[in-house]
Amino acid sequence: MQSQMLKTDIAHSSCPTSIVNAPVEIVWGLLTHPQKWGDFYDVRVTSVEPAGPAVVGQTVFAESGPRLLHLALEFRFIKIDAVKYELRLDVELPFGVTVCEDLNCVPIGRDQCRFNYNCGFGFPMGWRGMVARMLMRRELNSGPADSLSRLRRAAEERYGATRSSPDMP
Which whole number is the average pLDDT over 49-53? Predict the structure, then answer.
Protein backbone atom coordinates (compact mmCIF):
# COMPACT_ATOMS: atom_id res chain seq x y z
CA MET A 1 0.00 0.00 0.00
CA GLN A 2 2.86 2.38 0.75
CA SER A 3 3.96 2.37 -2.90
CA GLN A 4 0.45 3.35 -4.01
CA MET A 5 0.56 6.30 -1.66
CA LEU A 6 3.50 7.65 -3.69
CA LYS A 7 1.88 7.24 -7.14
CA THR A 8 -0.33 10.28 -6.92
CA ASP A 9 -0.11 13.71 -8.43
CA ILE A 10 -3.12 15.47 -6.94
CA ALA A 11 -3.35 15.89 -3.18
CA HIS A 12 -5.81 17.36 -0.75
CA SER A 13 -5.52 17.76 3.02
CA SER A 14 -8.33 17.93 5.53
CA CYS A 15 -7.49 18.50 9.18
CA PRO A 16 -10.57 18.78 11.41
CA THR A 17 -10.11 18.96 15.16
CA SER A 18 -12.59 18.90 18.02
CA ILE A 19 -12.87 19.02 21.79
CA VAL A 20 -14.38 15.78 23.11
CA ASN A 21 -16.12 15.84 26.49
CA ALA A 22 -14.84 12.43 27.50
CA PRO A 23 -11.54 11.12 28.84
CA VAL A 24 -8.84 10.40 26.28
CA GLU A 25 -8.94 6.70 27.23
CA ILE A 26 -12.52 6.38 25.95
CA VAL A 27 -11.67 7.96 22.60
CA TRP A 28 -8.53 5.81 22.35
CA GLY A 29 -10.57 2.69 23.11
CA LEU A 30 -12.98 3.47 20.28
CA LEU A 31 -10.15 4.05 17.81
CA THR A 32 -8.20 0.93 18.70
CA HIS A 33 -11.05 -1.59 18.44
CA PRO A 34 -11.69 -1.50 14.69
CA GLN A 35 -14.18 -4.38 14.69
CA LYS A 36 -16.59 -1.92 16.40
CA TRP A 37 -16.03 1.03 14.01
CA GLY A 38 -19.36 0.33 12.31
CA ASP A 39 -21.12 1.23 15.56
CA PHE A 40 -20.29 4.90 15.03
CA TYR A 41 -18.44 5.42 11.72
CA ASP A 42 -20.24 5.25 8.37
CA VAL A 43 -18.66 1.90 7.48
CA ARG A 44 -19.58 -1.77 7.59
CA VAL A 45 -16.56 -3.70 8.85
CA THR A 46 -16.34 -7.00 6.96
CA SER A 47 -13.16 -8.37 8.58
CA VAL A 48 -10.17 -7.44 10.72
CA GLU A 49 -6.90 -9.31 10.12
CA PRO A 50 -5.53 -10.24 12.54
CA ALA A 51 -8.62 -10.04 14.73
CA GLY A 52 -8.49 -8.11 17.99
CA PRO A 53 -7.38 -4.69 19.18
CA ALA A 54 -5.29 -2.55 16.84
CA VAL A 55 -1.71 -3.60 16.10
CA VAL A 56 0.75 -2.28 13.55
CA GLY A 57 0.19 -4.12 10.28
CA GLN A 58 -3.41 -5.01 11.07
CA THR A 59 -5.78 -4.56 8.12
CA VAL A 60 -9.43 -3.60 8.43
CA PHE A 61 -11.63 -4.46 5.47
CA ALA A 62 -14.85 -2.49 5.26
CA GLU A 63 -17.55 -1.22 2.94
CA SER A 64 -19.27 2.11 2.65
CA GLY A 65 -22.05 3.63 0.62
CA PRO A 66 -25.50 2.23 -0.04
CA ARG A 67 -25.77 -1.45 0.93
CA LEU A 68 -26.32 -2.45 -2.71
CA LEU A 69 -23.15 -0.67 -3.87
CA HIS A 70 -20.51 -2.24 -1.56
CA LEU A 71 -17.68 0.29 -1.99
CA ALA A 72 -14.62 -1.53 -0.65
CA LEU A 73 -12.34 0.22 1.86
CA GLU A 74 -9.07 -1.04 3.31
CA PHE A 75 -7.38 0.44 6.39
CA ARG A 76 -3.89 -0.60 7.49
CA PHE A 77 -2.44 0.44 10.86
CA ILE A 78 1.05 1.87 10.21
CA LYS A 79 1.80 3.43 13.61
CA ILE A 80 0.32 3.03 17.07
CA ASP A 81 1.71 5.01 20.01
CA ALA A 82 -0.46 4.27 23.04
CA VAL A 83 1.60 6.58 25.28
CA LYS A 84 1.05 9.64 23.06
CA TYR A 85 -2.39 8.47 21.81
CA GLU A 86 -1.28 8.62 18.16
CA LEU A 87 -2.33 6.46 15.21
CA ARG A 88 -1.39 6.43 11.54
CA LEU A 89 -3.40 4.51 8.97
CA ASP A 90 -2.99 4.07 5.24
CA VAL A 91 -6.37 3.80 3.58
CA GLU A 92 -7.35 2.57 0.13
CA LEU A 93 -10.63 3.87 -1.24
CA PRO A 94 -12.31 2.96 -4.53
CA PHE A 95 -10.98 4.31 -7.84
CA GLY A 96 -7.35 4.35 -6.70
CA VAL A 97 -7.85 7.08 -4.08
CA THR A 98 -5.57 6.77 -1.04
CA VAL A 99 -5.60 8.50 2.33
CA CYS A 100 -2.87 8.84 4.93
CA GLU A 101 -4.65 9.40 8.23
CA ASP A 102 -2.77 10.78 11.24
CA LEU A 103 -4.94 10.80 14.35
CA ASN A 104 -4.06 11.91 17.84
CA CYS A 105 -5.78 12.62 21.13
CA VAL A 106 -4.46 15.18 23.58
CA PRO A 107 -5.77 15.05 27.15
CA ILE A 108 -7.04 18.46 28.29
CA GLY A 109 -8.25 17.36 31.68
CA ARG A 110 -9.61 14.29 33.36
CA ASP A 111 -12.91 14.47 31.45
CA GLN A 112 -11.90 16.12 28.18
CA CYS A 113 -9.51 15.75 25.26
CA ARG A 114 -8.79 17.29 21.88
CA PHE A 115 -8.97 14.98 18.88
CA ASN A 116 -7.00 15.87 15.76
CA TYR A 117 -7.78 14.10 12.50
CA ASN A 118 -5.37 14.83 9.64
CA CYS A 119 -6.24 13.26 6.29
CA GLY A 120 -3.95 13.49 3.29
CA PHE A 121 -5.82 12.37 0.18
CA GLY A 122 -3.94 11.13 -2.86
CA PHE A 123 -5.41 10.61 -6.30
CA PRO A 124 -4.25 8.56 -9.29
CA MET A 125 -2.11 10.39 -11.79
CA GLY A 126 -3.64 11.88 -14.92
CA TRP A 127 -7.27 12.16 -15.95
CA ARG A 128 -8.42 9.37 -13.59
CA GLY A 129 -7.22 11.38 -10.64
CA MET A 130 -8.90 14.53 -11.90
CA VAL A 131 -12.21 12.69 -12.33
CA ALA A 132 -11.93 11.01 -8.89
CA ARG A 133 -11.16 14.34 -7.24
CA MET A 134 -14.09 16.01 -9.01
CA LEU A 135 -16.48 13.22 -7.94
CA MET A 136 -15.27 13.37 -4.33
CA ARG A 137 -14.84 17.14 -3.95
CA ARG A 138 -17.66 17.53 -1.42
CA GLU A 139 -16.54 14.54 0.64
CA LEU A 140 -12.89 15.65 0.94
CA ASN A 141 -13.67 17.93 3.88
CA SER A 142 -17.15 16.80 4.93
CA GLY A 143 -16.15 13.11 5.20
CA PRO A 144 -13.38 13.61 7.79
CA ALA A 145 -15.48 16.19 9.66
CA ASP A 146 -18.42 13.76 9.76
CA SER A 147 -16.17 10.94 11.01
CA LEU A 148 -14.81 13.20 13.73
CA SER A 149 -18.33 14.23 14.76
CA ARG A 150 -19.44 10.58 14.94
CA LEU A 151 -16.41 9.64 17.05
CA ARG A 152 -16.99 12.59 19.41
CA ARG A 153 -20.66 11.71 19.83
CA ALA A 154 -19.88 8.01 20.49
CA ALA A 155 -17.20 8.88 23.07
CA GLU A 156 -19.42 11.38 24.87
CA GLU A 157 -22.35 8.93 24.91
CA ARG A 158 -20.13 6.15 26.26
CA TYR A 159 -18.71 8.47 28.92
CA GLY A 160 -22.20 9.63 29.91
CA ALA A 161 -23.32 6.01 30.23
CA THR A 162 -20.38 5.12 32.47
CA ARG A 163 -20.99 8.16 34.69
CA SER A 164 -24.67 7.29 35.21
CA SER A 165 -23.94 3.60 35.89
CA PRO A 166 -24.52 2.65 39.55
CA ASP A 167 -21.29 0.61 39.43
CA MET A 168 -19.19 3.72 38.81
CA PRO A 169 -17.94 5.87 41.68
Answer: 97
